[in-house]
Amino acid sequence: MAAIFIVDDEPMLHELYGEILEMSGHDIVANAYDGDEAVEILKTMDEPPEIVIMDHRMPGKDGIETTKELLKINPGMKIIFASADGAVKDDALASGACDFLAKPFPVSDLLLEIEELIAGS
Amino acid sequence: MGKARILIVEDEAVVAENLEMVITDAGYGVVGRADNADDAVTAASELKPDLILMDIVLPGTKNGIDASCEIKEKLDIPVIFLTAYSDLTLVDRAKSTEPYAYIVKPFQEGQLFASIEMALYKSQIEKRLKESEAKFKDLAELLPQTVFETDERCNLIFTNRAGFDCFGYTQDDFEGGLAVIQMISPEDRDRAKENIDRVMKGDDRGGGEYTMQRKDGSTFPAIVYSTPIIHENRPVGLRGILADITERKQAEALLIESEERYRILVEHSPLGIFKADTRGNIEIANPALLRILGSPSEEATRQVNLLTSPLLIEAGVSELVKECMEKGESLNSEFLYRSKWKKEIYCNLFLTPVYDTGGQLSGIQGILEDITERKRVEEALRESEERYRRMVANVPGMVYQFVLHPDGSMAFPFVSESCRELFGIEYNELMRDTNALLDILHPDDHSGFYRSVADSAKSLSPWEWEGRSIISGDERWFQCISRPERQANGDILWDGLVMEITERKVAEKRIEEEYRRAEFYIDLMSHDINNASQVTSGYLDLLLRMPEFPSEFRKYVEIALNHVRKSSNIISDVKTLSEVQSGEAGLARIDIYPAFASAVETAMSQSRDVEINSDITKDRYFIRGNAMLFSVFSNLLNNAVKFDRHDIVRIDVDVSSSDDDRYWKLEFKDRGRGIGDHYKNIIFNRLERAGESAQGTGLGLTIVKYIVESYGGSIRVEDRVRGDRTMGSNFIMLLPKGG
Hints:
The complex is a heterodimer.
Chain A: E1 3-7, H1 11-23, E2 27-32, H2 35-44, E3 51-54, H3 63-73, E4 78-83, H4 89-94, E5 99-102, H5 107-120
Chain B: E1 5-9, H1 13-26, E2 29-34, H2 37-47, E3 51-55, H3 64-74, E4 79-84, H4 88-94, E5 101-105, H5 109-142, E6 146-150, E7 156-159, H6 161-167, H7 171-175, H8 189-201, E8 206-213, E9 219-231, E10 234-244, H9 246-268, E11 272-277, E12 282-285, H10 287-293, H11 298-302, H12 310-315, H13 317-327, E13 331-338, E14 344-355, E15 361-370, H14 372-394, E16 398-404, E17 410-415, H15 418-423, H16 427-432, H17 435-438, H18 446-459, E18 463-471, E19 474-486, E20 492-500, H19 502-545, H20 554-582, E21 588-591, H21 592-604, E22 609-614, E23 622-625, H22 629-643, E24 648-657, E25 663-669, H23 679-682, H24 700-710, E26 714-721, E27 724-736
Parallel strand pairs in B: 1-2, 1-3, 3-4, 4-5, 22-24
Antiparallel strand pairs in B: 6-7, 6-10, 8-9, 9-10, 11-12, 11-15, 13-14, 14-15, 16-17, 16-20, 18-19, 19-20, 21-23, 24-25, 25-27, 26-27
Helix pairs in contact in B: 2-3, 19-20, 20-24, 21-22, 22-24
């Protein structure tokens, strides 16, 4: 079971991720719809999330920048990058993300990844 | 003559008185009387009488003759002796004083007056003669030529100072006797003797030229004019004049030399030279003239008459000859002339009238220059100029010369007429005023223009510039291409062409806009559609994960999921294709193996039994490529898997070096259903044949082709087993080796 923070500008994905993850027993501890909001929310959280699902293209800061800032605040978090743009995979991993999922990905891939991250920590 | 003044010398006073009375009565004047010799001499020198009447017998030691002698020595006064008959014996002695008369006392008046008159007359004549002699002697002495006289045996009896100077003889030599013949050079002596004889006989006035010989043996050329001296009808000698003609001879030699020079000039002149008389008959024609006219000889040429030859009349030459003679002026003109000897020549003819020494027109002199070759070159030049002019006028743009002076000023030495069409400026206005063009430059392009001109001037590299001008309010684009060249005076001169590219620029702008729009669409698809697909596939996944979902409907959900993934694959392909086409991905030396290995992995991960046999190994096969190589391999392998209906999919991938060693040749051999000959090309060209049915292979092979070609390689498909397509396909790829 993991505490998960979802950062994505698409509300439908928040819902989908919510359904899938909660069905699998994970907790969605926070939702942010752009990078700045994500940073603000993380700062106010007493208990930081274990896992962040990070979109790339959002209004304002992009996923890579946001990943860097979030990790600066809490380096212990695992960040799963989920983007439709496969070209940013290398940059995303370089910025500190643990894994990259190219949208659209099968739900099973996401769940498998989370399981691995939990097991790894 | 006025009244003669007479001095009377007579010791007998009566005689003297009587004499004076008689003379005075006769109208003469008596200036004085003396009665002895000394007084007589004194009176003569003081009174300077015109005549002295002198008694021979005088008192004292000196008589009248002595007095006369003394007077004669000092003065030139005529003396008439008076003598008694008994004194006649003295007369002989008196003769030496050259008296004018003797009068015997007692004298008769008539005889006295006659003697006085005669003496006065004779004295006057003598005086004149003496003056004249002196004059001629002075003249002879002053003459720069040698003046001489000889006796009948040709011994020199007189010569002037010039004679002495000229021959180097002295007065002593002269007095010792000089024969004329020894003053002539030995080789000329015989001839001289003959001529002298002729002159003596009066046959010849001389004027002969001889080589003369000086005392020191040196010689000089001279011309001698002589005439016989006749005395009592018989030649007694020669009188003559001799002139040193060394200078004349030198001048003559120079003249001959100069004539020779002119003769050589005329003979060798490349210009035709001729002379003709007033009737048009050619008298002289030099070799060049014959050559120009194609004439066989000077003789043949001389038979041509300048005024009557039909060919010359036709060419207009005769007219010019006539005009030259009539006007007496030098004229020249160019002619096209076909000579009698069938030579067609363009010539430039100069004519000058010639006059004889009397000033009478004696003919014309002509110089003929063959300008056929020059005319031909001129004609060719004119044609070539015309051709270039036409070319320059018809070039689609403005041809120009642009110059940058060392002081930074600029000018257009030449612009073609298209200037008007392109810029609305008259070409001559632009050549006069460069600002006419600089002023209409788009303000934003000003600095770029000057900078690029300066760069080109500095590096002398071709000047290529694109920029805008504002012409009647419209923005127009121009492209200038030109090549600079440094001139000797420091100018930089560009020859070039300016073309209007407004349409191209508009098209380029449109293309750019469309490219951006395409990017936008791709971006939209890859982001928004993928997000939407994620939602769709996510929920479909969710459905399948629900235990209560009826199993009989699962396959429908699976089909839907499959197609959602497919649509996302299409988006990914389009993105890849766009990246390949935009050339964004650079090339580098890469190993084929990693991309191949991961493509194999992808192909094997499908839910089929797949067997891939390959020679491709790590660190062995390098090409010039990029990360897209993975797309190439995965497209080929996935297609092979997809179309292979066998239980076990088997794919062979062979690698070898191309025949020319420049490429790695990769062969992907499958056992699929094969590709019909008609489709063997089409399958790679989905983009060019948009709209046509392309057998549902998607964009995959099109992407493969674009990527391979972007590497400088190629791809084609053949039947795996030649002639039997059902045995599967062989995709053959050549990829340039990467060192």
